[in-house]
Known about the structure:
The chain has eight helices and ten strands.
Amino acid sequence: MDSLESIKKQMTDAFMADSNVQALYGFASGTSWEDKFAGVSIENIIFYIVAYVIWLRETALASWSEDVQQTALTTRYGTKQWWHAKALEWQKGDELIVKDTGEISYTTQDSTKQIVKYCAVVEDGRSIYLRVAKGSIGTLKPLNQTTEDDELAQFSQYCSLIKPVGMTVIAQSMTADNIGISAKIYYDAQKSKTEIAETVKTAIKNYLNTIEFGGVIFTQKIVDCIMATAGVKDCCAVKLLGADSSTELGRKYRGQSGYYAVNTWDINMEAEVNLN
């Protein structure tokens, strides 16, 4: 979609190239719009208003088209978007009914029973893996899997009832993927070493909480968090490590649970005198 400025320029370029307009206003071919018309001129204001109306219409149409496409994907039986929506619709303890239309749903919707808050849908041929968690950002946790209250088993049964024929659906709910962070940080010698180290950890945890459920961790993002911390002068040897702290995960890493927690910190702080 064109920007407002681009739309206005297309209009003014065509206007300035018109021989009749050139004769009416008395300017030579090749004269720019800015050279002939001031920003406060009536012509410039009129073209801006018309361009704005066109831009507003195109923006509204683009937004509408995106909404329609997303709605179509969400309601189309068996798509990843459909599975994501259905996972969040599961109501613990409630029984599904089959409507006259063949649709399987609940008699009433009760958000207090919809305990699955996050879902990552992974396709593998005819199999669908639903990785889910309950709770909220920063306090995510797996569904209960105890004899007294096996929420994962109940959720799995729900998925089996609504799944397309011939498709294998595997529900998974795990504790956070534990990772380790290793880095050498050079900090301003006039600042508090302890405070900077704790601020760095907080920044990295905040970054992990911004990752889309089921998303990827990037080592460079960890570097960005460190360098954006007040008092940090430089950093090097930044590594993303596995749960055992001996395996380097490389440039990026996608976990199995859908979310992450740091269980090992190896932050080597070294003071650096400001020579500027």
